[in-house]
């Protein structure tokens, strides 16, 4: 999950960063200290191919992007308003967090209310990796809001992607502990501790593929509606940190490689710098909804064509 802060001036941006570090440190001293989480039990997340008669028809893919992921909520609102139902949800990073709630049956309006009231500091702590989140907050949040249901026990099929730490190889989890899978999918290097599942370490799904469109096809989806909340390359300002520019261009290239496998790709323009303020959250939700409304005719056409060709 990316933690970029809204641009004001160089001085104020530094103050915000140091302020965030201060919050992290305080929460670490309060007891959020931990290392790599281990999941080796019978419910440890894993992949299992769907039987031919259980393969999904329509997949909704929600990409990673940290606080930019609030835009997913706007998309969910529009899909719900228009009666578009996916029977498979595939999520990476923040897309996995929100996707789990959606797959479990939470209405878009309730997810929106939850997001606007959310205190982001609940996900921050100190781990043995340094000033970072240990992932416990993410685990507890997901586990509580999904009532501890496993990936295969949701109202909709749910698949969560993560990257194998050793080589960034994409891994799909669709069976087992939901909160553990989402925790792994959200373990952005230098921000959240990696997660070890069945002896293998995993990090943020965004590192393997920001918008896991091919994963939906691998799971058998006939129609794929994907949501990319990353910044437009054209929006990268000249004074953005060089490392950010490299990462964002690489991310855009990774999405482009899979874009052709989606029937509909929704990409709201959320500007470049992100934040966690109420205004920023509301802006992302509104722009996500606007982009989804613009895509409604294309979604209808894709669904109609699939019905004809079945």
Describe the protein in words.
Helix 8 links the parallel strand 10 (223-227) and strand 11 (264-266). This protein starts with 9 loop residues before the first helix and ends with a helix. The chain contains nine helices and eleven strands. Strands 2, 3, 4, 6, 7, 8, 9, 10 and 11 form a nine-stranded mixed β-sheet that branches. Strands 1-5 form a two-stranded parallel sheet. The protein is an alpha/beta fold. Mean pLDDT is 87; it is low at 1-34 and 126-131. The protein has helices spanning 10-29, 70-81, 94-103, 108-117, 136-145, 178-185, 213-218, 242-259, 278-309, and strands at residues 33-34, 37-39, 58-62, 88-92, 126-127, 157-164, 170-173, 195-197, 200-203, 223-227, 264-266.
Layout of strands and helices, then pairs:
Blueprint: H1 10-29, E1 33-34, E2 37-39, E3 58-62, H2 70-81, E4 88-92, H3 94-103, H4 108-117, E5 126-127, H5 136-145, E6 157-164, E7 170-173, H6 178-185, E8 195-197, E9 200-203, H7 213-218, E10 223-227, H8 242-259, E11 264-266, H9 278-309
Helix pairs in contact: 2-4, 2-9, 3-6, 5-6
Output the keywords.
310 residues; alpha/beta; nine-stranded mixed β-sheet; 9 helices
Briefly, what is this?
This protein has 310 residues and is α/β, with parallel strands linked by helices.
Mean pLDDT: 87
Low-pLDDT parts are 1-34, 126-131
Large-scale geometry:
globular
Oligomeric grouping of the chains: single chain
Q: Level of helix content?
A: 40-55%
Radius of gyration: 18 Å
User: Termini distance?
Assistant: 38 Å
* SS-based class: alpha/beta
Number of strands: 11
Q: What proportion strand?
A: 5-15%
Compute the number of helices: 9
Biggest sheet features: 9 strands, mixed
One letter per element, helices H and strands E, the order comes to HEEEHEHHEHEEHEEHEHEH
